[in-house]
């Protein structure tokens, strides 16, 4: 477990997947040598929103226990992200008490995400491709680059679009995806919503 805090800009594009496309990509990414598997994990995440709709998250798995702040909506291509590792589930529970106390009525429905992360070298950079199954919400593929400066998105966004195209995927429709997320938060099972 990494115990060092991190701050970076996450430059990320997402595609929503059918069950068939998810299974096809899972097989393709795991059987192709140009994609190097670096992580497999099932991670629980609890969410809160501040007054500006930024994400505050507590996440835990058998590999990770952390507090995460992400500035902006999930449909934004480049977001500031700050990760602070927590030493134990006891610390996690105390952070949960703090966030529940500070963010009264701003806690959202949590998720269980099963993910595989791959490194893909493209045009001289190492990108992360993350294949995700978020129970009751969606199947996604994210392509991302972690940058030191926000301005780096001008370099990486075109590459991320090319990687999505190479995988036969289209960028998700942000408005449709946000509608799905809101339905999920309201308690609906959105996994089989039309793509």
What does this structure look like?
This protein has helices at about 20-30, 90-100, 155-165, 175-185, and strands spanning about 5-15, 35-50, 55-60, 65-70, 80-85, 105-120, 125-135, 140-145. The protein has one domain (about 5-185): Beta Barrel (Hypothetical Protein Pfu-838710-001). About 20% of the residues are buried. By secondary structure, the chain is α+β, with helices and mostly antiparallel strands. It is globular. A hairpin with a 5-residue loop joins strand 2 and strand 3 (about 55-60). The chain starts with 5 loop residues before the first strand and ends in a 10-residue tail after the last helix. Strands 1-5-4-3-2-6-7-8 form an eight-stranded antiparallel β-barrel, surrounded by four helices.
SSE map:
Blueprint: E1 6-17, H1 19-31, E2 35-49, E3 55-60, E4 65-70, E5 78-85, H2 89-102, E6 107-122, E7 125-134, E8 138-147, H3 153-166, H4 174-185
Antiparallel strand pairs: 1-5, 1-8, 2-3, 2-6, 3-4, 4-5, 6-7, 7-8
Structure described in brief:
With 195 residues, this protein is of the alpha+beta class.
Helix and strand sequence: EHEEEEHEEEHH
| Major β-sheet strand ordering | 1-5-4-3-2-6-7-8
The secondary-structure class comes to alpha+beta
- CATH names the topology as Hypothetical Protein Pfu-838710-001
């Amino acid at each position: 477990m990494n115990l060092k805090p991190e701050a970076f800009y996450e430059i990320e594009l997402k595609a929503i997947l059918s069950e068939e496309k998810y299974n096809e990509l899972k097989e393709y990414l795991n059987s192709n040598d140009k994609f190097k598997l670096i992580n497999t994990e099932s991670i629980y995440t609890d969410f809160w929103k501040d007054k500006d709709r930024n994400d505050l998250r507590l996440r835990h798995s058998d590999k990770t226990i952390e507090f995460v702040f992400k500035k902006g909506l999930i449909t934004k291509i480049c977001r500031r992200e700050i990760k602070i590792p927590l030493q134990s589930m006891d610390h996690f529970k105390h952070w949960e008490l703090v966030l529940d106390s500070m963010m009264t009525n701003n806690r959202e429905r949590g998720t269980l995400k099963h993910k595989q992360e791959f490194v893909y070298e493209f045009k001289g950079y190492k990108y992360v491709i993350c294949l995700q199954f978020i129970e009751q919400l969606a199947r996604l593929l994210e392509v991302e680059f972690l940058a030191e400066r926000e301005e780096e998105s001008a370099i990486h966004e075109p590459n991320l679009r090319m990687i999505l195209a190479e995988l036969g995927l289209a960028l998700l429709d942000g408005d449709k995806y946000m509608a799905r997320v809101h339905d999920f938060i309201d308690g609906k099972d959105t996994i089989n919503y039309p793509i």
